[in-house]
Amino acid sequence: MNREYEFVFKGFNPSREEYYGTILTLANGVIGVRGEIELYPSKYGFFASGIYDYTPIFYREIVNFPRVNGLYIKVNSKPILLANCDNLNLTRRLNISQGILYTSLECRFGKAELSYNSLRLVHRKRRNILLQHSRINLKNSEKLSIETPVELDKVNPLIPANIYIKHYEVVDMDIGGDYTSLLLKTIDNRYKVAIASKTIVLGHVEHVDKYTLTDKVVEVYDVDFKNMPIEVTRIVSISTSRETEDPLDKAVGELEKAVRDGRDLLVAEHISSWKSLWDNIKLRIDGDVEVEEKLLFYAFHLLQLVDDEQEYIMIPARGLHGLGYRGHVFWDTDIYTLPFYIAFTPEAARRILMYRYRILDKARLNARKNGYKGAQYPWESCDDGIEATPREIPLDVLGENRIRILTGDMEHHITADVAYAVHLYYEFTGDEEFLLNYGLEILFETARFWASRVEYDDDKKAYVIRNVMGPDEYHPSVDNSFYTNVMARKNLELAVKYYELALEKGNKWIDKVIEIGVTSEEVAYWRKIVNNIFIPCKNNGFCEEFEGYSNLRNMTTKTKGLGIVKVGEKFLELKDTQIIKQADVVAALFLLYDEFPKHVVEVNYKYYLPRTTHESSLSLPMYAGLAAKLGRIDEAYKLFKLALKTDLEDLYGNTSDGFHVATAGGLWTTLLLGFLGIKASSGKLVKIEPKLPEHWKSVELNISIGGRKLHLRVRKNSVQVDDKSRGEAKRIE
User: Fold this and answer.
1) What is the pTM of this model?
2) Could you say which of 1.10.10.10, 3.40.50.970, 2.70.98.40, 3.30.413.10 is the CATH number of the domain covering 9-278?
């Protein structure tokens, strides 16, 4: 990185602690530990990537496992309660360059004066390790008690909010030795999770006690202060049955090794690993340090979701940061976040797509269940690939009032979104091995879905797609959604393109086509649909969001699309108006920008912007990106800056539920494809067409294309590309 990047948060407010818990989350793609201060109770423990359990309403959800980093202090036998501290001074510093959360606190408790400092990391290299080191100073008191529990009372909330479910139980425990170890299993018996914890206290320890209660396993250290600082190092190892058949043995082994190696080595390794990761990006925006810093903040949280070891990666809509959307995977991953990973960690992008390949059979099953052919990807999915979207949500304990959820039944566009993601990955990486062994099958099976999903309309003399929902969820059950139809067309077009490519390559490529069972007659039908699918556009270039949209009551938002309008439960009142929730037509035009005349893009951008509430956090990056492509730079920058507030300023008021992963990825997509105008094809850089804000003197960053590491220096009127792999430089005026 160019320098140390640190985000500072001051003060303590119990009502805001869950917000800080999200934005200060530390993760490494295997485990995620929220950022609530360790001295204060939290309803959250840790999350383990890919570990889900059955639950009412939501089918399966990510598990809220025990809290393993709480540290509670008693002075003269009285617990220190932060909410009751006098002269409380709390500062938290998230150093994203190092991947470390630093906490410093001072407060007065009666006559005692407490000074507390800690660092916390979730190890980037040793994927099972959490390290927390605390330094405690105390004045006007000699007796201090430190408790480092494993808190077994963490549960998942249901709906309504006063109902909970606990997804794990303890099947083995050992507290008699040098460390505490537990083996948990999920209630469905599908997963085992092991915890091994060691607390090291440097100071005059008078007594150590270990015991178990129904809701926690406790280690208590009674310390005679002696006017010397007390240091508490807690190392926790967490392992799951996703990694090994014996997670307890692995957790204990990793813990013992970490303890032997010591805190200093663990910290140094972690910082070094983050430095290597940041070297893949090296972003610098000359003229806008604020935006540079904020983009890197969002990149930090995206990078924390990458697991370098598993065959596939799941990217939940709210990351490993919270229980929002129950840890489910949406189209967010394929459309919004994948470009970031493709550009900077293409190996991770491949493993993200491997998740889609892994659940391909379940997508086939989903299509058959719904009466279609090929593969239909679920709107929401988790570990097993089964449709996980709730059909209805109760609003009261008895379930007498319910909201019907239609997205799982109608947002079929996700199937085309996955195909689009496969194509984008190949365009930037040229990864033929992935395309041959996995990508072709996804492209062909999703094309088969659309070929069975369309209907031929004799009056229109065209293929139509009825009863769907586009990205705009204010308008369910529509016919011929522009987004759905053009993305379905693209899916079929890509299947035809890659079928022809396979025939050109011959040998094992043709063998793969034969293995999948694709015939020339089938491809001819795909081509026919591509050439004859109905797209609801007028002669003047205006494209209806769906057929009949123009007949709805014409309204615009009070912000004219340049601010957020929160509709909430009143969204049902908007289905008969032209007000929309998020980028829909605009999203399609951004993704397929080169396939539409510029005047068509311009007409639709200008029409839909003032009618969009941006109530979905997915909306602003798409509008900003398209505005940049159109050269509407001031407007693009304003929308972009607003999107940058999403989590850093809790723009939507729900960051406490987890990080907005799609927005984070969307911001980077706006930069890469919008402001910088990067385009690649078959693993080669094709062009860069910058549309930079006026005060941006230049943008520099590293990017990976076709397996080559490129350093870009982009100005308004020139582009310099240095191939770090070959030591070549090219200047484009």
Assistant:
1) 0.97
2) 2.70.98.40
